[in-house]
From TrEMBL:
GO MF terms, alphabetically ordered: transferrin receptor activity
Entry protein name: Transferrin receptor protein 1
Family: Belongs to the peptidase M28 family. M28B subfamily.
Gene3D superfamilies assigned: 3.50.30.30, Transferrin receptor-like, dimerisation domain, Zn peptidases
Assigned GO CC terms: external side of plasma membrane; melanosome
Lineage of the species this protein comes from: Eukaryota, Metazoa, Chordata, Craniata, Vertebrata
Chain ranges of the Transferrin receptor-like dimerisation domain: 649-748
Membrane-spanning ranges: 77-98
Keyword Coiled coil: no
Its job: Cellular uptake of iron occurs via receptor-mediated endocytosis of ligand-occupied transferrin receptor into specialized endosomes. Endosomal acidification leads to iron release. The apotransferrin-receptor complex is then recycled to the cell surface with a return to neutral pH and the concomitant loss of affinity of apotransferrin for its receptor. Transferrin receptor is necessary for development of erythrocytes and the nervous system. Acts as a lipid sensor that regulates mitochondrial fusion by regulating activation of the JNK pathway.
Length: 759
C-alpha cells in the first residue's frame, strides 16, 4: 500500500526525468498473475533496453519499454481521452452521412414498372421523389379552379390583342417564380383583301361575297362546272373516278369536316380541279345559314415562305415557297350559299350516304370563283416559362396552347391558354410549397399564329430543332380541350391514353359506349395535320399527344367561326366549362407529372411493332401482284423490309428486358435507357427527304412519298398503270424506307456492339 501511495504521488507530482515501476496485481481467470508496468513522466528512450515493446513477465524485476512509452501523466490521460472521443464522433458522423446518402441517392428501381399499366409503379427512390399517389393528391389540391380571365374580343395573330394576351401570360409566369423568355418571329400570312373582296357567281345568279376566307389560297379567277365531292377525301374522289366522272378543271364543292381544309384542297389539286369551295353542311354544323368559316390551306405547318428554317428575319433567305402551298383557288362559303348551289345541281346521282340532295353536278352547272387575298408580314411572339428539374434538368416535357383565334376563340384558344396558366401556377406551387421535386423540367409555351397552321410552334421547332429533338421528350397540346371526346397521340404514349380512359370512370355511359377493352379503336385516333401536336411528332420526332374532354354527344361546331364564344361553349357543355377545364387540366398535369416524376419514361415501344408489320404485309402482297404483271423486276424482294421489321421488334423487346433485368440503381443507367427510348420517334424521320419538299418526314405517321402508306399507294398506281407511277422511283423509296426502319432498330439497340446484324 505504501508503494502504491508513493507511485501515485509521483505520477501527480510530475517529477521530471524520473520513472517508476509498480506491480499491478490482478486476478485473471483464477490465477495470481502480476503485470509489471513502467510509467514515465516523459517519453524517453531507455538505454540498455532489450528491444521494442514491453513484455509480460511473472514477478519480473525488469522494467518494460512500453511502460516508458505510455506514461500516465495528467496531460497524456486527457489527450488520450479527447482523442478517443474525437475518433468516436468522426466515425459516427461518417457512418451517418454514408447511410443518409445511400437513402437519398436517386435510383431507377421501381417496385412495379410495367408498360401495360401506368397507374401502378411505386418508386423506391426516396429523393427527390415523392410517392406518385401523393403527387396526384397534391395536384388535385392545387388545381381546383380554372380562371377564364385571359379573354379578348380580337386576338388574331400579330394583332395588339394577341400581344396583350402574350404579355398577360408572361406576367403570370413571372408571378409564379418561373424563368421566362420570348421567341420573336416575322412571318408571312395571307389575310382577306383589305379594300376589295372575294366573290362567287353561280350560273347566272347574283354575285355572292363571302366574308370568310382560306389563308394561303392561290389568287385569281377560276371558271368551271361544279362537282360535288362529299368531304373531299381520297376515298370520295376515288369513288368519283370509279364512276368515270371527269374531274379536270371542275370546281369542287365539298363539306367541311373529317379532314383539314388543306387536305381537301390538296386532294382536289391532284385530280386537276381548278378550285375548291368548302361549306358547313347543316348535317354537321348547326351554326346558321350565314356564318362564315375561316382557315388555311397550307399542306404543312409554319411559315410557308421559310420552309424548313425559322422566320427570324426574311432578309436572310432567298425567296422560296413551301411545296405545300396550293396552286388552285380555295374559298369558304356559308351554309346558305352551299345549299343553294346543291339544290340547283343536275347530273348523275350521288353515291349512297353522301347527303340528302343527291345530284353531283354536270357541265352546265358553271360557277365563277375569284380570290384576292393579301400576303402580309406580321411580327409574332411565343411566350415561355420553365419549371426546372432537379436531376435531369436538360430533359423536358413541353405543354403548349395557342392564344390567337380568328374571332373570340373561346373554345379554340381561351380555355387552353387559361388551363396552361393554371397548370403553371399549380405545379410551381407544388414545387415551392408542396415538397415536389420533378426529376425533369417542364416548359410551358403560349403559341401565336396557331390558326394559320401552327406557325408559332413550328417556327420554334425549326429554330431549335437540333437541341429540341434530343432533349424534349414529349409535347402535350391543350388546344380545344373541352370540345370533344378523343385522344390523339403517337403510339408510344398509348399507356397514358389508358390512364385517360380511367379518368372517365365516373362516366358510366362512356364506359358502356366504348368499354375498357376496345377503347383504343374507339377513342384513340392518329394526330391530325391541323393539330399543333402534329409538327412536334411528324416534323421533329417528339412524342406528342392531344386530347379533348366533353360530356356531350357531339363535337363542338363553332371552331373556325365568329360564334366560338363563352356562351356557345357553355350551351354545348351544359355550362360545365370550368369543371371540364379543371378535369382536363388535371389530366394534362397527370401526364406531364408522370413523365417528370418517374425514373423511366412510360412509353410503350412495342406499340409500333403491329403497325410496322401491317404495312409490311400490305407491301409484300402488292409487290408480288405488281411482279406478276412484270412491272417490277423479279429480283426485287421484300425480305430486307421484313428483316428490318424483325430487327425493330427484337430491339424493342430487348430494351424492355433490359429495363426489367438490369441493375438500375444509378442515375446514369436511367439516363441511358431514357435516351434510347427518346430516339425512336426521331429515327422514324426519313433522312432522305428535304424538309422543304416533305416537312412531315415520319415514315409511319407523316405525309409524303417517303411514308410506308405512300409506298402502298405507289404500288396501287403501278398496278393500274397510272402515268404518275414510276417503278424506278418506287425502288429507291422502298430501299430508303427499309433502311430507315433498320436505323431506328439499330439506335434502339443501344451500343454498337449490341446491334442486330441479321439484315
Amino acid at each position: 500500500m505504501d508503494q502504491a501511495r508513493s507511485t501515485i504521488s509521483k505520477i501527480f507530482n510530475g517529477e521530471p526525468h524520473s520513472y517508476t515501476r509498480f506491480n499491478l496485481t490482478q486476478n485473471m481467470e483464477g490465477d495470481n498473475s502480476q503485470v509489471e508496468m513502467k510509467l514515465s513522466s516523459e517519453i524517453d528512450e531507455e538505454t540498455g533496453g532489450n528491444g521494442v515493446g514491453g513484455h509480460l513477465n511473472h514477478n519480473s524485476n525488469r522494467t518494460p519499454y512500453v511502460a516508458q512509452k505510455f506514461g500516465r501523466t495528467p496531460k497524456n490521460l486527457c489527450f488520450m481521452a479527447a482523442t478517443i472521443f474525437l475518433i468516436f464522433i468522426i466515425g459516427y458522423l461518417i457512418g451517418y452521412l454514408v447511410h443518409r446518402n445511400k437513402d437519398l441517392a436517386p435510383t431507377c428501381a421501381t417496385s412495379a414498372l410495367r408498360y401495360e399499366d401506368v397507374s401502378v409503379a411505386h418508386e423506391t427512390g426516396a429523393a427527390p421523389l415523392m410517392d406518385w399517389d401523393d403527387v396526384k393528391k397534391l395536384l388535385a389540391e392545387k388545381l381546383t379552379t380554372s380562371s377564364m380571365d385571359l379573354t379578348s374580343s380580337n386576338h388574331r395573330a400579330g394583332s395588339p390583342g394577341d400581344e396583350d394576351l402574350g404579355n398577360k401570360v408572361i406576367t403570370k409566369f413571372k408571378e409564379y417564380g418561373m424563368k421566362t423568355w420570348t421567341d420573336e418571329h416575322f412571318v408571312k400570312v395571307q389575310d382577306p383583301p383589305a379594300s376589295g373582296y372575294n366573290r362567287i357567281v353561280f350560273k347566272n345568279g347574283s354575285e355572292e361575297r363571302p366574308t370568310g376566307f382560306l389563308s394561303y389560297s392561290a389568287n385569281g379567277t377560276a371558271r368551271g362546272a361544279v362537282l360535288y365531292a362529299h368531304y373531299g377525301q381520297e376515298d370520295d374522289l376515288r369513288q368519283l373516278k370509279d364512276m368515270n366522272i371527269d374531274m379536270n378543271n371542275r370546281v369542287m364543292l365539298v363539306r367541311a369536316g373529317r379532314i383539314s381544309f388543306a387536305e381537301k384542297v390538296a386532294n382536289a389539286a391532284k385530280v386537276n380541279a381548278s378550285a375548291v369551295l368548302i361549306y358547313p353542311d347543316p348535317a354537321d354544323y348547326s351554326i346558321g345559314e350565314s356564318t362564315p368559316l375561316f382557315g388555311h390551306v397550307h399542306m404543312g405547318s409554319g411559315d410557308p415562305y421559310t420552309p424548313g428554317f425559322p422566320s427570324f428575319n426574311h432578309t436572310q433567305f432567298p425567296p422560296v415557297q413551301s411545296s405545300g402551298l396550293p396552286n388552285i383557288l380555295a374559298q369558304t362559303i356559308t351554309t346558305g350559299m352551299g345549299m343553294n348551289i346543291l339544290r340547283q345541281l343536275g347530273g348523275r346521282t350521288q353515291p349512297n350516304g353522301w347527303g340528302s340532295i343527291n345530284r353531283l353536278g354536270d357541265e352546265s352547272d358553271v360557277i365563277t370563283v375569284e380570290v384576292n387575298n393579301v400576303l402580309t408580314e406580321k411580327r409574332i411572339n411565343n411566350v415561355f416559362g420553365v419549371i426546372k428539374g432537379f436531376v435531369d434538368a436538360d430533359r423536358y416535357v413541353v405543354i403548349g396552347a395557342q392564344r390567337d383565334a380568328w374571332g373570340p376563340g373561346f373554345g379554340a384558344s381561351t380555355v387552353g391558354t387559361s388551363v396552361l396558366v393554371e397548370l403553371a401556377r399549380s405545379i410551381s406551387d407544388m414545387v415551392e410549397n408542396g415538397g415536389f421535386k420533378p426529376r425533369r423540367s417542364i416548359v410551358f409555351a403560349s403559341w401565336s399564329a396557331g390558326e394559320y397552321g401552327s406557325v408559332g410552334a413550328t417556327e420554334w421547332l425549326e429554330g431549335y430543332l437540333s437541341s429540341l429533338s434530343m432533349k424534349a421528350f414529349t409535347y402535350i397540346n391543350l388546344d380545344g380541350i373541352v370540345t370533344g371526346i378523343y385522344f390523339h397521340g403517337c403510339r408510344l404514349l398509348v399507356p397514358l391514353g389508358r390512364l385517360w380512359l380511367k379518368s372517365w370512370e365516373f362516366d358510366k355511359s362512356l364506359l358502356s359506349q366504348f368499354g375498357k377493352n376496345n377503347w383504343e379503336s374507339a377513342i384513340l385516333e392518329p394526330l391530325r395535320m391541323d393539330s399543333a401536336a402534329y409538327p412536334f411528332l411528324a416534323f421533329s420526332g417528339i412524342p406528342s399527344v392531344a386530347f379533348r374532354f366533353h360530356s356531350g354527344s357531339s363535337d363542338y361546331p363553332h371552331f373556325s367561326t365568329n360564334l366560338d364564344t363563352r356562351e356557345n361553349l357553355n350551351s354545348v357543355t351544359a355550362s360545365q366549362v370550368p369543371q371540364l377545364a379543371v378535369r382536363a387540366g388535371q389530366f394534362a398535369g397527370h401526364i406531364a407529372l408522370r413523365l417528370v416524376h418517374d425514373h423511366l419514361l412510360q412509353m410503350d415501344l412495342k406499340k409500333y411493332n403491329q403497325l410496322i408489320r401491317s404495312h409490311v404485309v400490305q407491301i409484300n402482297g402488292k409487290v408480288k401482284a405488281v411482279q406478276r404483271v412484270s412491272l417490277l423486276p423479279k429480283a426485287l424482294t421484300v425480305k430486307w423490309l421484313i428483316m428490318a421489321s424483325g430487327s425493330y421488334s427484337r430491339a424493342s423487346s430487348a430494351l424492355a428486358a433490359d429495363i426489367q433485368n438490369s441493375d438500375l440503381e444509378d442515375i446514369e443507367m436511367c439516363r441511358v435507357i431514357n435516351d434510347r427510348i427518346m430516339t425512336v420517334e426521331r429515327n422514324f424521320l426519313s433522312p432522305y427527304v428535304s424538309p422543304r419538299d416533305s416537312p412531315f418526314r415520319h415514315i409511319l405517321l407523316g405525309s409524303g412519298p417517303h411514308t410506308l402508306k405512300a409506298l402502298t399507294n405507289h404500288l396501287d398506281s403501278l398496278t393500274t398503270a397510272n402515268p404518275d407511277a414510276d417503278a424506278e422511283l418506287f425502288r429507291n423509296q422502298f430501299a430508303q424506307a427499309t433502311w430507315t426502319i433498320q436505323t431506328c432498330a439499330n439506335s434502339l439497340a443501344g451500343d454498337i456492339w449490341s446491334l442486330d446484324n441479321e439484315i
